[in-house]
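Hi R.,

Here's the chain you asked about this morning:
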Amino acid sequence: MDSSSLDEVAIPPGFVPSGTTELGIDIIKVDRIRASIERFGSRFSERVLTPNERRYVRDRPETFAGRWAAKEAVSKVLGLGVRGIGWKDIEVERLPTGQPAVRLHGRAAARAEQLGMARIALSITHESDYAVAIAFGVRTAGGKYVFPLDIEERIDDRERRILDRLERLQAAGQAARDADPSKA
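And here is the predicted structure, written out as tokens:
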């Protein structure tokens, strides 16, 4: 297939081809984490980190900030943010080589499965003032961009009416395209 043919391939609206990449990045000031550790003590790390992560981090502010940024970056790859998933649903492990790896649990694992995302690569760096992480995922299956698994429980009546209206508009648009393919 030559490059001019590629321009003519129509991808349906909302469709995500297999191999689509998702990228997330986060940066945090180490002093924000240091202040939270000082203010809340072990309650802070118990809320954010898994037991394995706590053993590695040991409340070191730079290391903790790196884990925080990594969890935020991974949550962006999953398209939800940590508020839609939960801090401990994303676990950052340290491989024997020192490379960080992602292990997903609970809602994060369900979301990755929903997106057809088998693996998320991660890189973390930190210094005395900032920690930065970047996460990269490849969808192994195509499909549509989808709402979070628990969207129905999380939306209020106004949001539900808006979503219903959007679905009706999408259905009407599809019906019009089906009725007259020349206008697609």
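One quick note: Residues 14-141 form a domain with the Ribosomal Protein L22; Chain A fold (CATH 3.90.470.20).

Cheers,
M.
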